[in-house]
Amino acid sequence: MSVQVKGSAITARLRWVRELYGEAGFKALKAAVTPESRALLDGKIMPHEWVPFELLVDVCAELDRLYGKGDLELCRELGRYAARTNLPTLYRIFYALGSPSFIMSRATRVWDVHYSSGELESVDLPPADGARGARLTIRHFQTPHRAHCLSVLGWAEQSVLLSGASLVGAEETQCRTRGAAACVFEIRWR
Predict the structure, then answer these.
(1) Which of 33, 144, 3 is nearest to 14 (CA)?
(2) Which of 23, 68, 171, 187 could bridge across to 64 with cysteines, CB 3.0–4.6 Å?
(3) Can you give the pLDDT at residue 110?
(4) What pLDDT, in 10s, does the model give residues 50-76?
(5) For residue 128, which phi and psi values (nearest 5 degrees)?
(6) How do strand 119-128 and strand 131-139 relate by DSSP bridges?
């Protein structure tokens, strides 16, 4: 079975392109994606339904090619935007009451709701220079892709900001697309 992702990952990116580039931008995206993705975009994607993970990768990669630099870095901003769009509505109570450590520890549960493959582990990092942090590790994800990894990094960055902390740093230290056994992200905040 192919990997599935919740439609909210797609609807956030479609909202991004429409807000910044209007309906013409959305039409350019539809023209750029694969015929399979175009057929899905022509239908109604609901935030809580499962859609193929390939659609997420295709949409992110084509948005980056059309409106970024073609290096997939725009995917990080798309992940931030998705967090700003989806998290305050879906998980309002977590952000109202939780610290970044609490939010990151709950990310493991959020993963299972949004992806049909893999698992996310979160562990606190030792404090350094007055900053706290977390290490997020994605294991056993069936079809890793750089666009997805950068989106997850952006999501983690925005999650810290939504919880009221200041972001000190965020990086992917290991990636399966570069031969590592897992994708590992380190996020620090004050």
Answers:
(1) 33
(2) 68
(3) 86
(4) 999 999 999 999 999 999 999 999 999
(5) -145, 125
(6) antiparallel
Residue whose tokens read 């220079």: 129
Predicted TM-score (pTM) of this structure = 0.94
- Cα dihedral sign for 97, 184, 65, 37? negative
Nearest to 149 by CA among 124, 177, 109: 177
Query: Of 170, 95, 168, which is closest to residue 131 (Cα–Cα)?
Result: 168
pLDDT for 97: 61
Helix, strand or coil for residue 12?
A: helix
DSSP codes joined into one string, 143-170: S--HHHHHHHHHHHHHHHHHTTPPEEEE
Q: Specify the pLDDT at position 91.
A: 55
- Of 126, 152, 127, nearest in space to 139 by CA: 152
**Euclidean distance between CA atoms 173 and 167, whole angstroms:** 17
